[in-house]
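Memo to structure team: turn this sequence into structure tokens by end of day. - J.P.
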Amino acid sequence: MVQQNFSDHFEKIIHENEKLKSELDQEKKDVLLRHKELEKREAENECERRKLIEEKEKECTSASGIADEKAVG
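Reply from structure team:
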């Protein structure tokens, strides 16, 4: 009787441990996937930021050229 209770309890602990390990593994996969998505988004944001800086510089150069032409003209 005591042996059976011990065995049942032990089985229950093993089963719970396997369940928790499985859940933890899934959470780890989810975190890694989210990390990759955030890295991709960060790279896209950096690329977009560079494009906006280039556009701003072109607009400033263009506006400066127009102002120079008006001043000369």
